[in-house]
Amino acid sequence: MLLLLFTPPVLLIGGLAKRQDWIYWWANWGARNWLRLSGVKVNVTGRELLDAKQAYVFVANHWSYYDAVPLFAYTGRRMGMVGKKELLKAPILGYGMGFVNVIAIDRSNRERAVESIQEATRRLRSGISFGVCPEGTRARPGEMLPFKKGAFHMAVQAGVPVVPMAIKHSDELMGRGTGEAWPGTIEMVMLPPVGTSWVSSDDDLRKLVEQVQGAIMKVLGVEKITPRQPRVTGR
Q1: What is the largest CA-CA distance in the chain?
Q2: Any idea of the CA torsion for 151, 157, 158, 159, to the nearest 10 degrees?
Q3: CATH placement of domain 39-220
Q4: b/e for 98-119, b at 16 or more Cβ within 10 A?
Q5: 209: Cβ contacts below 8 Å, ≥ 6 apart
Q6: CA distance linking residue 162 with residue 124, whole number of Å
Q7: How far, in Å, CA of 188 to CA of 26, rounded?
Q8: Most confidently modeled of 7-11, 100-104, 149-153?
Q9: CB 95 within 8 A of CB 66
Q10: What is the pTM assigned to this prediction?
Q11: 30-84: pLDDT as tens digits
C-alpha cells in the first residue's frame, strides 16, 4: 500500500523533471520501508571488501520473495536488477521498474533474453552494478538450484568482478510454498569479489560459475545442488 501510494507521483514528477536519481532514491526508500513495516531487519557483512568506485555483478541465492529487496537496497551502491518478465506485470510498480534499471528477461524467447542481457551489460559498463539471483526461480528452503550463466556472461563482457552473496534466513521468514510471512532478521553476507579477466572460454566460464556458487553454498551450509525438475508440457 505504501509503495502504491507514493509511486505514481514520484514517477510523474521524476519523469517530467528528467531526474531518474529522484526515482531511484524513492525506490530505495520504499524497498527498505516495506521490509521495516513487515518487521524484517537486514544485517549486512562484508561490505568493506568492496571498492566504492567499482561496479560489480552481485550474485545471490534465491529462497524467498524477500531476497530481492536486500539485494537492491542494502549493497551500499546504486543497483540494477535482472529478473523474470513477470516482475513487470505488477500494477504501477512494474512500470516504475524501468526507471531504476530493473531489466526483465523473457526466458521463453531466447532472442529477447539475449537482448535483455546485452542491455544490462551496457548499463553495467556505464558504472551501474547489477544484482542477480541466477537460480532463475526460488528454490525450496535449504536447497539450491544450478546457476544459470547469464549474470556471469554480463560480468565477463563488461570486465567487472562478481560478488558472491549469501542471503540467510529469508526462507524462514517467507519461504517458497509456505504461504506465510513472518518478522525476523535476514543476514546478507558479501564474500570477496571474484575477478573475471581470466575467463576466455566456455570452460573458464563454467569454472567461474562453480567457484561462485560453491562459495555461497559453503556459507549457507548447502552440501549439494538440487537438480531442476523438468517442465511439464501439454501433449
Answers
A1: 53
A2: 100
A3: 3.40.1130.10
A4: ebbbbbbbeeeeeeebeebbee
A5: 147, 149, 152
A6: 12
A7: 22
A8: 149-153
A9: no
A10: 0.81
A11: 778 778 888 899 999 999 999 999 999 999 999 888 888 888 889 988 888 886 6
Q: Report, in angstroms and rounded to the nearest whole number, the Rg of the chain calculated over CA atoms.
A: 17
User: Quick one: average pLDDT of 101-110?
Assistant: 72
Domain edges within the chain: 39-220
Question: Grid coordinates in use for 209?
Answer: 560459475
Provide the grid cell at 39.
518487521
C-alpha cell, 144: 539450491
The single residue listed with the C-alpha cell 533474453 is 113
Neighbouring residues of 135: CB distance < 8 A, sequence distance ≥ 6? 61, 62, 144, 145, 146, 147, 148
